[in-house]
Design brief:
The protein has 12 helices and 14 strands. It is an alpha+beta fold and 366 residues long. Among the domains are: 126 residues, 2-Layer Sandwich (Muramoyl-pentapeptide Carboxypeptidase, domain 2); 103 residues, Trafficking protein particle complex subunit 3 (Muramoyl-pentapeptide Carboxypeptidase, domain 2). It has a 6-stranded antiparallel sheet. The radius of gyration is 21 Å and the shape is globular.
Length: 366
């Protein structure tokens, strides 16, 4: 499962369990209606915090509910009903199965889950405790542990967590009915593939995109790093995030998309993007498709602005912030952004400068 490809070094679990299709998407190999993205994850918790500051309330319960539903659906694909029946009928120790789930989490970049203890007597006093080190996102990491236990037992759970030291958390999952009001706020949809024209260069050994060789898996820590930007990455489902943003926008209005875009813009501006990094349309298209963000249809960039039309897009609010931050980083300017996300998943982004602070030494030819 965690064995790296001899050529590109991508773990077997990533290349075996995911497919990169021709319309700028990544899907789960076992269920191609489930879409995934490979994204910078260090900004996820700051995005949640920005929303909370904007609306004046905690969104952690909603985030954890959405993540738990989606991760449980994913892990169910690895849990044959007959195996679950044996565990439930004989009260067998399910730790070996949870071990496999925790290993897959390492490959996905979620951090390191270490087993602590469990009690399984099919009662309300049951629990499963782990120690999570360096989570890619704290609420998403906690919810992922809940989902793993639920996928094994088919019993609803909740969890409590405590910070033991910086970036180290004790998480204990235990049986509890779900909050139906939280579930009602979320609209979850399956992904439906439409053919596209994206062609990605593939590793001859594992068939994953060769662009993934630019990332390094620190499997013991459950961490993936972009070797160029030194930014941390994770493989997540956009369905763990977009329904949360959509629900909160319906309830609180424009404050929510503004908070997500602004947090994403600020994070991107702290990176290492230059004009050379975004001027080549082919390279930029490959980057977006390789991360599962969509199919770049139209693109232009110069000092006067940045225009992008991204078909089959997911995480549109985060993508808008990334586009704005990349333009500002490349040209060292403040900017304005206009955007639209249509019903057919076409994301239109137009970034224009407020003023120019410093002219770049490189002038692109478009």
């Amino acid at each position: 499962m965690l064995t790296p490809c001899p050529e590109c070094k991508v773990p077997e679990f990533i290349s075996r369990e995911h497919l990169w299709l021709d319309n700028g998407e990544i899907v789960q190999a076992r269920e191609q209606r489930h879409r995934m993205v490979f994204i910078d994850c260090e900004n996820l918790d700051p995005i949640f915090q920005a929303i909370e500051e904007a609306i004046g309330e905690s969104i952690e319960p909603l985030v954890m509910t959405c993540v738990r539903i989606n991760v449980r659906s994913y892990l169910n694909l690895f849990m044959p009903p007959e195996m679950r029946d044996v565990i439930l009928s004989q009260s067998l120790d399910y730790k070996p199965i949870d071990d496999n789930f925790r290993n897959s989490a390492k490959a996905m970049g979620y951090g390191r889950y270490d087993f602590v203890d469990l009690r399984f007597e099919k009662g309300q006093a049951d629990y499963c405790a782990v120690c999570l080190t360096e989570p890619f996102s704290l609420p998403m990491g906690v919810a992922s542990h809940i989902a793993a236990v639920e996928a094994i037992l088919h019993v609803n759970h909740d969890a409590v967590y405590t910070e033991l030291e910086p970036r180290v958390y004790d998480i204990t999952a235990f049986p509890r009915d779900h909050d139906r009001e939280l579930l009602k706020r979320l609209v979850l949809e399956y992904y439906s593939h439409e053919d596209g024209d994206v062609e990605l260069e593939r590793c001859p050994s594992c068939q994953s995109p060769t662009a993934l060789s630019g990332y390094k898996w620190y499997i013991d820590r459950g961490i993936i790093l972009n070797e160029f930007t030194r930014r941390r990455m994770a493989m997540v489902s956009p369905q763990e995030l977009d329904p949360v943003f959509d629900a909160l926008e319906k309830e609180h209005g424009d404050a929510v998309p503004h908070a997500v875009i602004e947090a994403s813009r600020r994070f991107t501006r702290t990176g290492f993007y230059s004009m050379e990094d975004i001027a080549n349309e082919g390279d930029f298209r490959t980057q977006l498709a390789g991360r599962g963000m969509g199919n770049l249809r139209d693109f232009a960039v110069s000092r006067s602005g940045f225009r992008m039309r991204l078909a089959n897009a997911v995480l549109p609010l985060i993508s808008v912030g990334i586009a704005q931050g990349m333009f500002e980083m490349a040209f060292d300017v403040e900017s304005n952004v206009d955007w639209e996300f249509t019903e057919d998943k076409l994301l239109k982004v137009d970034v224009t400068p407020q003023s120019t602070k410093k002219a770049p030494s490189f002038t692109p030819t478009l």
